[in-house]
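Ticket #4471: structure output looks truncated?

Reporter: J.K.
Steps to reproduce: submitted the chain below (275 residues) through the standard prediction queue, then opened the result file.
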Amino acid sequence: MKKIKMIGLDLDGTLLNSKKEVTDHTKSVLEEAIAQGIIVLVATGRPLTGIPGQVRAIQGMQYALTTNGARIYDLIHEKTILSHPVPYEKGKKALEITEKYDTLQEAYFDREVYAQENQLQEIWRYHKNPHMWEYVRSTRTVVPSIVKWYGEAERDADKLQLMFADMQDIERARKELEEIPGLVLTGSLGNNIEINAQGIDKGIGMIELGHRLGIDRDEIMACGDGDNDLEMLKAVGFGVAMGNAEESVKAVADYVTDTNEEEGVAKAVEKFALR
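Returned output as attached by the reporter:
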């Protein structure tokens, strides 16, 4: 295995524990990696505003891959360096299709996420982890009707997300959404569908950023646990699945570390990246 020069880390279920926190030891390990010249970045389905302050405070972290690779930021210079949004007409059709299901529909644009007021008021029906409720409420811009607002906004979205109250609705909705060409569908929470533009995922984003920075894929390591991490672990030179990862993710990984409750990220970085 080549020397690791870049490490991409999923947040939920990977870097963050069940309380949505980064342990002091994990923070210390990542700062040591950065001090050794390794580029460490988050690779998340969240928007920029969804990256916890505790993560942003990791000394020396310069880049953030957000919304599954649809937008990559230079945090130090506060600018977007890569953007691959969902075309407006396709996003509009996806929201119209899924409006009939019992879903929390969200539209991600750069630093803002829009959601429907009545759906957010019953967030407990869609987000099963209570530690996520305040985060979601505090980072969403509320509109009366997400479908109506999006239709009038006429903007390309970084990502759309649908969280379902009824698990039986997911497969029905997925089949309908798969009929829209030019979209890629993933998930990370078990009861959600994340929609990105075709050809966009965390893996493509990691490789593209690496290319810009003169880093080969064989020099990139990534850690993840969910469906939206699968392509990333396959794309990079060394893919690490968490102990709590879905079996499909473990199957494509080069190594399975401990769970996010057992500081699996820190252990993998210490084992494979630190000198």
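Triage note (M.O.): checked the attachment and the full token line is present. The mean pLDDT is 94.
Status: closed, working as intended.
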